[in-house]
Every structure is written in structure tokens, then in C-alpha cells.
């Protein structure tokens, strides 16, 4: 009886050991396969980088990225940071806006790239007087740890509409790359209202109907004093930014396309940031329940955006929507002219 129990235990441990070894073998083979796959030029693109010899293998970048996050979350010592060559770097690219344009989605999707490290929270350094008075060293401390070859990206949507921000960023880095993600202005205005409405409801506070806020009751015209309307006049704010930065340092992202077909937009951003092409369709999958694309970092880890993203908009009087579209139209045309990019906005 005792002998049979011992034999059964040996067989059990043998099976478990085989499973563990098999899993390790699968991981090793798969990581090697990923490296080889990324050296192959996708048929769709037909173009490969001229020289990939200096690029770090994909799985090595992913492991380094995971290590940086692990050390960032734990109590790390200077010795650990030196050993792994981790440093804090000022952003080389900033997502400056626009609010409710898809800034969070863009930042999260860019973090799929192993050479990109994101500041998880909105820092609000350049648009907040108290924070700005603390100086660049304070700003640097708010950045995540990264490796020298990686670029840090932060996003604060209020930057785009705050008058002092362009000059302040210019003083820090006049050659920084600026990402601006926009949506169809009327849709963005409704989305802005929806977010504020939800916040009011959570606090059991009342809030005016959308139609009451966007139309001036005295003139029956669009109410430009309403912040959600003003924010959607993209050309107005971009012209101010162009007093400090040339248009070549901006990249305009189509926020509507990022929702329905994100990969082409992300490829354009990779090119703008001079990054090797790393984000692929493998990294993006459509979640039918959420109605949005979610992110797949590897076969073990994936994530979707927070539940607060993709709120259901309230019903808006169609005549009010049409009134807003007519109002925004000349500003949209000017925006197209400045950026050299046309959108399918009514």
C-alpha cells in the first residue's frame, strides 16, 4: 500500500515537472520566433529599414521594459538603477491635447512600443502655476524610469488650450515633438459635456442640458463662452502654438480613426517619432463587449482602457448638432489648411 502511494507521488511530480519544462521550452522558442518575425518585412508595407543591425531584439526590449516597471514600483536602490542603466529622462514627445480627443488611448497604445515609456499620470507641469514654479527638476522626478535608448512620453490635454504652455515647453526643449489628437468637433463637444455631466451626477448635482449650454439664449447663436465649444475650435489654439514651433514639429492624429482602425494611425506616429516599426495588428484586438480595441502586450498580458472611456452620449437635438457643424465648418477648413491634413468631418 505504501509502495503504491510513493509510486503515485513520483508519477505526479514527473507529470508536473514535464509541464513546467514544456512551458519554459515554449517561452524560449516563442521569444526567438518573435525576433525573427520582426526582421521580416510585412507584405503590406513592402519596405524594410535599411539597417536593423543596431536595433535591440524585440524580446530584449520587452524584458527591459518590464524590468524598468518592476524597479519603478518597488523600493529601488541607486545600485540597482546603475546596474540596469535606468535613468529618468525629460519627455522627447508630449501629447498636448485635445481633451476628449483620445489622449489616453493614444498614450496607452504608444506604450505598446518597447522603445516608449509613458508617464502614467497627467503631470500638469506647464499649465499649472504651482507645479511650474517647482521647476524642471520637479518635472523630471515625475517621469518614469527608462533606459537611455527609450523615449519618454507624457500627456496633459489642458496644454493645448492654455496660453502660457507653448512658450514654457519651448524654453525647456525647442526641438520637442508634439502630438495633437483631434476628433470631429461636434462629437468632441458632446463628449466633453458628457464627462462633466457624469461628474455632476456622481455628486448628486444638477447640470444644464447640452442644448442650453451650447446656444446663447439672447442671440440664439452658438455660445462661444462655453468652454467645450471653444476647445473644439482647433485652428485658434494651433495658430498660437505656431508662434513658437514650426508645423513640422506637430503630428496630428485622427482620434476617430484611432477608435475604428488604430493601427494605421499608430504607424504614422511611429514614423513621426523616428521609431522602428514595432506595433502590429497582433498588439490590438477588438473587444466586442466594450466596443473598443484593447491592447495585447504579449501572450500573457493584455489590457483594455478604463470603463470611463466610451461613455454613452446623451441624445442631442439634431438641429443643434447641425447648428454646431455649420459653426465649426470655417474653423475646420482653416485647420486643414494649416496642418495639411483633411478629415471627413461634415
Strand content: 5-15%
- The secondary-structure class comes to alpha/beta
Give a short account of the largest sheet: 5 strands, parallel
Helix content: 40-55%
The total count of strands amounts to 10
Low-confidence stretches are 25-61
Shape: globular
CATH topology of the domain at 79-185 and 232-312: Rossmann fold
Architecture of the domain at 79-185 and 232-312, according to CATH?
Answer: 3-Layer(aba) Sandwich
The succession of helices and strands, N to C, reads HHHEEHEHHEEHEHHHHEHHEEEH
Features:
single chain, 3-stranded antiparallel β-sheet, 46% helix, 5-stranded parallel β-sheet, 14 helices, Rossmann fold, 346 residues, alpha/beta
Explain what the structure shows.
The chain is an alpha/beta fold and 346 residues long. The chain has a domain at 79-185 and 232-312: P-loop containing nucleotide triphosphate hydrolases (Rossmann fold, 3-Layer(aba) Sandwich). The protein has helices at 2-37, 58-73, 78-83, 103-110, 129-133, 136-141, 165-172, 185-202, 210-214, 227-231, 234-241, 255-260, 262-272, 318-339; strands at 87-88, 93-97, 116-118, 145-146, 151-155, 177-182, 250-254, 284-287, 292-296, 302-303. The strands form three sheets. The chain has a five-stranded parallel sheet with strand order 3-5-2-6-7. A three-stranded antiparallel sheet has the order 8-9-10, with no helix packed on it. A two-stranded antiparallel sheet has the order 1-4. Strand 8 and strand 9 form a beta hairpin. Helix 11 packs parallel to helix 14 (318-339). The chain starts with a helix and ends in a 7-residue tail after the last helix. Residues 25-61 have low confidence and may be disordered. It comes from Carassius auratus (Goldfish). It is found in: Golgi apparatus membrane. It is a single-pass type II membrane protein. Keywords: Disulfide bond, Glycoprotein, Golgi apparatus, Membrane, Signal-anchor, Transferase, Transmembrane, Transmembrane helix. GO terms for molecular function: [heparan sulfate]-glucosamine 3-sulfotransferase activity.
